[in-house]
Amino acid sequence: MSIDEISKRKGHKDFVTVVCDIEQGNLVEVIDSHKQDKIIEVLEQQPLEIRERVKEVSIDMWGGFPKVIEKVFPNAVVVIDRFHVMKAVNSNLNTIRKQSGIKVKNNKFILLKNGIDLSAEENEKLELILKQSDRLRTAYELKESFRAIYESELTVEDRKKKIELWMDKARKVYCKAITTISNHIEGICNYFLSRTTSGVMEGVNNKSKLIKRRAYGFVNFDNFRMRLLA
User: CATH for 2-81+197-229?
Assistant: First the structure.
């Protein structure tokens, strides 16, 4: 399963919670709240024997979802989606990029792109960028070494040790990201159990946003919910 939140109307912090079956690729529930108690109340309407079958729930790093999972899905482990972890690291890297005052064209795109996917021309630009700041070079190399942990074929425990070693090494550069990763280390490492991601949920969210745009937003939640489930 995957749990996420979306806004009912663009530009408004009026969130609803969406629940998706990752295996089937289906949206299974839309809840008119972002509060733990309400989410739990709605999801507990499903029979316990069904909820006990859920083994993994993929989420972002919002603090409330793990409590919901613990209460509603007693046999499930929390999996922090890989995309959101890398987003935290890339956000820190982007801050360092801005502080470095790099003027090379498209430098943000090149720095945040996976190193393995860079073309020969992009690699040349990358070296030109990194020559201008030792701190930025260190930050970039740390970003790539963190990404490599996700690509490795180690055991879950060995990957956890690698992440902990990475945090010790990167602490002076990635202060904010380190705090985030440290606070969610178990959920981050649970990803390596079966590499569950929220990719299906991202697709569902994109379709939901398209429905919202076509309707110019929804004032009535029941109409919004029925449209999404349909």
Answer: 3.30.420.10
